[in-house]
Write a structure and sequence with these properties.
wza like fold; alpha+beta; 5-stranded mixed β-sheet; single chain; Outer membrane lipoprotein wza fold like; 2 domains; 3-stranded antiparallel β-sheet; 10 strands; 3 helices
Length: 174
């Protein structure tokens, strides 16, 4: 018996790029960025909240707004540039080759994160790295073994990532 597949829906966040397609109305179909305040502007629709909504939820909201001007508008929203909600991003700081915030994806692992940031710098103390995660409303610290994972190929050091995780990679002492 196969385990039930995890259903995760992407929620639009500030900095995402979205394409809005309005069927039979190419003049209303646009590509727009989500502003830092989480809102978008399109022809005939101004200051609509996009952040926190799924693409389908946003499409329905645009349809409601356009129904003032069009009879039965049909809208599709596609995300083309992903950043995600800030609360769901995984942040990597310290001695990563490219420290950054990464959009969370379901089934993402520590190895996926390390690939996204380009690995460790030569000065990293990978096995002293710490993962900070909110558990039951409380921030907790977990030790992670990045050197074991990346240099030795110890797959047991690979862990599942959660939205909002923070990975801190310290500098080695010489």
């Amino acid at each position: 018996m196969q385990p039930a597949e995890e259903t995760a829906y992407y929620h639009i966040g500030p900095g995402d790029s979205i394409n809005i397609f309005v069927w039979e109305n190419p003049e209303l179909s646009v590509s727009v960025p989500v502003r830092p305040d989480g809102r978008i502007n399109t022809p005939l629709v101004e200051d609509l909240r996009a952040a926190g909504r799924t693409p389908t939820e946003l499409a329905r909201a645009v349809e409601r707004e356009l129904s003032t001007y069009l009879k039965n508008p049909v809208v599709t929203v596609m995300v083309s540039g992903f950043r995600g909600l800030p609360s769901e991003q995984i942040r990597v700081v310290g001695e990563a080759a490219q420290p950054q915030a990464i959009p969370y994806r379901s089934t993402m692992t520590l190895l996926d994160v390390m690939i996204a940031v380009g690995g460790l710098t030569e000065f990293a103390a990978g096995d002293r790295s710490v993962l900070i995660r909110e558990v039951d409303g409380e921030r907790r610290q977990f030790n992670v073994r990045l050197d074991d994972l990346l240099q030795d190929g110890d797959i047991s050091a690979n862990v599942k990532m959660h939205p909002g995780d923070i990975l801190i990679i310290p500098e080695a002492w010489f």
